[in-house]
Amino acid sequence: MGKKLKNYQEFPKMKNNFVENIKDEKYFYSLIEDIENSKVGFYSVGLYPASLAYNCAMHGKSNNILLAPREDRDLLGAFSNDVISDMDNEIIEKIKRMGNYSSEGKIKSFDLKDLLLKCEIVILASNSNHIQDDVKNALELRKNLKRENVVLGCLVGSFCIDNKNKNPFILCNKYPNLAFFTGFHRHGALRNPNDSFTANFCHPDALTALIGARILNQLSPKIQVSPGVHNIECQYIKSIKNISSIFAGFVNNFHSDKPGMLPTINTILLTQCLDQAASVSIKVRKENKLENKYLSLKELGYGEEIISAREIINDKFCEKGDYTFSQLNAVKADVLGSMTLPTEGKPTRNFQAGQVLSDMLLQLNRCPKDVSEFVNWCNKYSLSQGGLEGLKSLKFWPDIYKEFKIKNNNCSMINLIYLCFNANSEEKKEIYKVLISSEEITNFCQESVKSELSFELNEKLKGDYLFDDIENFYKKLFIDKEQNALKGNKYSNQISKKNPSYINVLKIINKYFNN
């Protein structure tokens, strides 16, 4: 499964820093001294930037945020009429002033050009349908306007697709100097006047990350923004956590009467997001190394300069994952927040999609025939496919899995939800049994996170009570090791009625996914 993705080294690195030449003291001092007046622009005003603007209008005292809707789109068009009717009229007027200006007696909306001329940071807030074109347009416009000290960022939470060769990719891997703004921003919660939030502004240049976070941090006293350098890793996490959120929504709804299992599911979903990103980090940082000359990671706010995972291969320690990014707490909070049923308001849209999946299984007593059937159900619940970034990422999962050589024990939950839609009908019967049974799904969680070697050992010893027959245990483990290994490999991916369903599902996964 999967195709070989394009090597991103062929894309030249875009310039995207506040200070290109640190020796330019005059510009550096003027930037820092005037930082309180620095503006942030959001282009393409969907639910998140509009909700962020609402929070800033409620709490912010300065006018540091500008909004530019897409052409022929209304500034507040992302909100339903019911939501708008509950909003404070004074705050609505403040938001409108963030997105409009007066010219020759007429009210006009800001556009991308206006943001590049007036702002120090421009966040391209579009989803994966538009973000590639928006980045290209912004780079060209910025160059023509001679405003290349404006830092561009994005917040897209799914993988993108190359329209020419149809290969999926991580946007910040294609543009390694593109900033990434992320955190726990469930859009409904941002309109709560009493709530507070954390976020990370990530850019591979530590100085740019530090200045950018400082500018963003002054938008609202209720939103604390910290700097980070791991833009690629954090964008990967956001793309994967949107898939994980579908799984979490399903489990929280279908198994709502079994609260004891929910922490297990959510913990594995979180740790597997981080484990995958650690594998991604090893690969992408070979091509796009983090070389910060002026600030160390500890000075930036990290606890450690590096957190590395190693494994023993041929009696030597080899690096298998770089977890340094995992010190960005707002990123982890975003994952946990998206997988949790809130005490008020609605959960994330991907979580809601998982609740729809739960209703499907309850009513149909089977897995969906395919993604299209699931999308039709989502539409019935007023969840359009365009807003479900998790489904977009899931579509490209096999290619991403291959490209970054993700191990099955680090992505078993993503593999399971993928095959819930894409396995054959007989295989889906086993997957269905796992999804609906708390015992099967917790056993799946426990076994699927183990390494391949552990799974093979369990196969060899199946049916034996290890400590009741020590002689047989010794014989199988040491004397018959090679013979058992060959036998185990021969039958390892076949479904058996004698096996519990979770074992059969592990074998199904190993048939489709075999890095």
Q: In terms of topology, how is this protein built?
A:
Blueprint lengths: L24 H9 L6 E4 L3 H13 L5 E4 L12 H5 L3 H11 E4 L2 E4 L2 H7 L2 E4 L6 H14 L6 E4 L5 E2 L6 E2 L1 H4 L4 E5 L13 E6 L3 H12 L5 E6 L2 H24 L7 H26 L9 H4 L7 E6 L2 E7 L6 H10 L10 H16 L6 H10 L8 H7 L1 H7 L8 H11 L2 H12 L1 H11 L3 H9 L9 H10 L1 H11 L9 H12 L3
Parallel strand pairs: 1-2, 1-5, 5-6, 6-9, 10-11
Antiparallel strand pairs: 3-4, 7-8, 9-10, 12-13
Description:
With 515 residues, the protein is an alpha/beta fold. Helix 9 (231-254) runs antiparallel to helix 10 (262-287). It is built from 23 helices and 13 strands. Helices cover 50% and strands 11% of the residues. The radius of gyration is 25 Å and the shape is globular. The strands form 4 sheets. The chain has a 7-stranded mixed β-sheet with strand order 2-1-5-6-9-10-11, sandwiched between helices.
Tally of helical runs: 23
The helical percent reads: 40-55%
DSSP strand tally? 13
Mean pLDDT: 88
Shape: globular
Largest sheet: 7 strands, mixed
Widest sheet: strand ordering: 2-1-5-6-9-10-11
Distance linking N and C termini: 10 Å
User: Which class of secondary structure composition applies to the elements?
Assistant: alpha/beta
β-strand percent reads 5-15%
Uncertain residue segments: 4-11, 484-491
Computed CA radius of gyration, to the nearest angstrom: 25 Å
